[in-house]
Write a structure and sequence with these properties.
By secondary structure, the chain is an alpha/beta fold. It is built from 17 helices and 24 strands.
Length: 509
């Protein structure tokens, strides 16, 4: 870590005088589990034992309570055959039912396989089989999703583990030589979900995050986005390391989230874009959100129109991160970036390498479209099925096309396999979607490409809203070009989305 990194950690309140006994406890936790969720709570228990770590639908828990409860749970899991290096599936909504099993699995030295609560039962079974899970932990009301995948595995509900956390006499297992991993599933918007193994975070990763998003230690963070997704998980992990209080609910309700910000005087709100849209659809203002310093958004594309509305309603506190399960973080747009250009993805964080290249792998000049490649210490090491993303000089392909401006800010145009050629012109559906979203009567919009006997391919706009198709087509013609106009507009009650808010275009097609 260099001087810049040290300054960022000091500014965040992470580097400050600490009692020797607390330093010892933190060091022992780090030596035992590495930079993992298990270490996060053990170290925070040594440093901030009585500080509230988690507030959920069942009440609150301190850092010391979570550390002690997960010691007992780890012992229970080990007694049931969860050994170092094995994999455990975790299917749970936000709250202690997700957090405590996640930590306990790590304390066993096992790998946590984070399952998507929006998956189908067949998908869950296929993932458990493919990853060789020896056990599965699930919310009781999600039993239908794991029914096909239970055979031959240890099965526990999060409700059972909550009782064991309070009553068990087990102790934490001894130190394991295996460094536990987190296996995060890809979103599955373009195919079946795949496991992406993520190595443990480092101090450099924390510094990179802080260089673009000004989090602080010992603050209160409301996490509305799913914790099984890399975005919600990242903020949960940072809150552990920062000694911050996390407030969360099992189910997303826009009014309830805003009231939680007011009740707890939260300074950070973690969301995916569709959640922001639903919050702003409420009669505004719903609650006092003046305590917020950061509204952190990621997980799917943030339409420029929505970014402008958020800045107008919440003030200059919106930070939008562009990344993926595979590349982790690639770029962050600050409030200043978004005020200048609501569509920008911003600049790469400190220490992150970002390139936009042509098909030959050469950097393209500013203003030229190319493939996005990203390098950071948090990039994944390949899919757990043995396949991989394209790589270039140690960087990983994000799977998107983008363009850099003269200042190095990135604009993402969409998936590299989404671009279509109409009349010899390159058309990017993401740009058309941005224009459609700018119409005040459009609630949701997505653009797909379908075969066409005359033109080879044509664009179809899928819209939620009360507006004439011709009006939308005229809007696109004015803002972009004739060849970018959707030939067809289909109206829907709602667009199909996954749990992180991404539109499932394969279902529309």
């Amino acid at each position: 870590m260099d001087l810049t990194g040290a300054r960022l950690l000091v500014k965040a309140g992470l580097l400050r005088p600490t009692r020797p006994d607390q330093l010892l406890g933190m060091g022992l936790a780090l030596a035992r589990w590495g930079l993992t969720p298990a270490t996060g709570y053990a170290a925070a228990a040594a440093r901030y034992p009585h500080r509230v770590a988690l507030v959920d639908d069942l009440g609150s828990l301190t850092f010391r309570e979570i550390d002690a409860r997960t010691d007992r749970l780890a012992g229970e899991l080990r007694a049931r055959g969860v050994l170092p290096g094995t994999a455990v599936g975790l299917l749970a909504r936000n709250g202690r039912g997700f957090v405590e099993p996640l930590v306990a699995i790590g304390k066993c030295g096992a790998d946590a396989l984070l399952l998507n609560t929006g998956s189908a039962a067949a998908q869950v079974a296929a993932v458990l089989d493919r990853e060789g899970a020896v056990a599965v932990v699930h919310d009781a009301d999600l039993v239908g999703l794991v029914a096909q995948g239970c055979a031959g595995r240890v099965v526990l509900t999060t409700e059972e583990l909550d009782r064991l956390a309070a009553t068990s006499t087990c102790h934490a297992p001894p130190k394991s030589e295996h460094h536990p991993r987190l296996v995060i599933l890809t979103s599955g918007t373009t195919g079946a979900p795949r496991g992406a193994a993520r190595s443990n975070a480092s101090v450099d990763d924390v510094v990179a995050f802080l260089s673009r998003i000004p989090l602080r230690s010992r603050e209160t963070t409301v996490i509305a986005s799913p914790m099984f997704h890399s975005w919600g998980l990242a903020h949960l992990t940072l809150a552990m390391l920062f000694g911050s209080t996390v407030v969360t609910h099992r189910r997303f309700d826009p009014a309830r989230v805003l009231h939680a910000v007011e009740e707890h005087r939260a300074t950070v709100l973690v969301v995916v874009p569709v959640m922001l849209d639903k919050m702003l659809d409420l009669p505004w203002p719903v609650a006092d959100t003046s305590s917020l310093r950061v509204v952190a958004s990621s997980g799917s594309a943030l339409p420029g129109e929505l970014a402008s509305r958020v800045l107008a309603s919440f003030g200059p506190v919106l930070y939008n991160l562009y990344g993926s399960t595979e590349v982790a973080y690639a770029a962050v747009a600050t409030p200043e970036d978004l005020a200048a250009d609501p569509r920008t993805a911003g600049l790469p964080p400190y220490g992150v390498r970002l390139r936009v290249v042509d098909e030959a792998g050469a950097d393209v000049p500013p203003g030229t479209v190319g493939r996005i490649f990203v390098g950071s210490t948090l990039a994944f090491g390949g899919y757990t099925d043995g396949t991989d993303k394209d790589r270039l000089d140690g960087l990983v392909a994000s799977g998107d096309l983008g363009v850099l401006d003269a200042a190095g800010r990135l604009t993402v145009l969409g998936r590299d396999d989404d671009m279509v050629v109409i009349g010899g012109e390159n058309v990017y559906p993401n740009q058309v979607e941005d224009v459609l979203h700018s119409h005040p009567a459009v609630v949701e919009a997505a653009v797909t490409a379908v075969p066409d006997a005359s033109f080879g391919v044509r664009l179809v706009a899928h819209v939620v809203g009360d507006v004439a198709a011709e009006e939308l087509q005229d809007l696109v013609r004015r803002e972009l070009a004739r060849f970018a106009v959707p030939r067809e507009v289909r109206f829907h009650v709602a667009l199909p989305r996954n749990a992180t808010g991404k539109v499932l275009k394969r279902e529309l097609q």
